[in-house]
Amino acid sequence: MTASGIDPRSSDRLLAWLSARGRVSAPTADRACLAIADRFDLNLGSDRSPTHRYLNPLRRLGHVEAVRGGFAVVPTTFCWSCRAERGVFLGGRDGVLLAELSRRLGPAFVASVSDHPWPATWRGHGRSETVEASIEGLGVAVVHEPGMKLLASLPTLEDAIATWTDAGRISGLTQWEVAEVHGRGRWSPTDGMGVENGLIRPSGKGRRIWRIVRDGVGRFLDSPEKRAVAWWAELARTVQPNLGLDRKADRLLLPASRLPPPLMVERPLFWASGSPPSCDSTKRHSYEAIDPGRAGEVARILGLSLEDAS
Asked: Quick one: which H or E segment has residue 278?
């Protein structure tokens, strides 16, 4: 689909608005998401907050970063992928940039839509010197995807958890709920028993900060990224699913999970192809253009085994 055929989704509208602002507070982002939902997403339902629905895909792909007190858009960047002569535009963007890229690159620029919840993907393709010369002067940084370097620098999830601030031993006198990380991810009461290992939260109402417990010691999960790390660490510890690598198709399949993988693991998978993941009928997400080396690094970090899915 060409740029002119794109019907913007709510996440696209939010990204354009954030691109004009640069950085906003969390309450301002909430108000903007509510306004977008009221005007363009009437089927969302009044009992559901649209902020996570619209912002999370932008964060997962690297268009937006969470900063202290709010969110900031990433500077506009063209990232060359692992696929020959193909790259993806990340970060700030608006209608003016869309029109200019379409004019300068012509058929070499394509904006396409993927399955929900992803915003439109803007791609450029062709010889590197031609593409880079065409976008010169637009304030677009050019990088070659750094996925393998990033993955190789990351510790395993369990090693990362061990470095987080110790919140003390978990009291058996407090009522806790333990997450069941398989299936729908339900929470079950502990019946007053202490917890040695698990993902927990206090029972009852109000703000309930999650904790990850290892050998009876809890650590607070005070950010979405820490919650994702802890969730996938528990998935590896209790369920022990496998990652599947289809070597013929260069496709990596991640096990079904209520929470997506940590950003620092998922972004290198997105950068490899420049395409968001797809989801099959079993809720497994697949990523394209993944070679055995990259798949092996992901398996190491997540603490999961890699199996042949060819």
From this structure: strand 278-279
Which pTM was predicted?
0.91
Spatial CA neighbour of 108 closest among 92, 91, 129, 94: 129
Cβ atoms of residues 71 and 24 within 8 Å: yes
Q: What pLDDT, on a 0 to 100 scale, did the predictor assign at position 47? A: 52
% of the chain surpassing 90 pLDDT: 75
Average pLDDT value for residue range 92-116: 93
Per the CB < 8 A criterion, the answer to whether 300 and 239 are in contact is: no
All residues at 6 or more sequence positions from 196 whose CB lies less than 8 Å from its CB, including other chains: 213, 215, 216
User: 257-260 — which CB contacts under 8 Å span 24+ positions?
Assistant: 257/181, 257/231, 257/232, 257/283, 258/181, 258/184, 258/185, 258/231, 259/185, 259/227, 259/228, 259/231, 259/232, 260/56, 260/60, 260/228, 260/285
Pairing of strands 210-214, 278-279: unpaired
Q: What is the pLDDT of residues 36-46, one digit of tens each?
A: 999 988 776 65
Task: Give the pLDDT score at 116.
Answer: 77
Alpha-carbon distance of 164 to 215, in angstroms, equals 14
- Tell me the β-bridge partners of 124: 87, 109
**Structure confidence at residue 2 (pLDDT):** 39
Report how far Cα 86 is from the mean position of its chain's Cα atoms. 21
293, 246 in Cβ contact below 8 A?
no
Which CATH class name applies to 8-73? mainly alpha
Measure the CA–CA gap between 54 and 12, rounded to whole angstroms. Answer: 9
Residue range 227-251, pLDDT digits in tens:
999 999 999 999 999 999 999 999 9
Domain parsing of the chain, residue ranges = 8-73, 77-144, 150-156+239-308
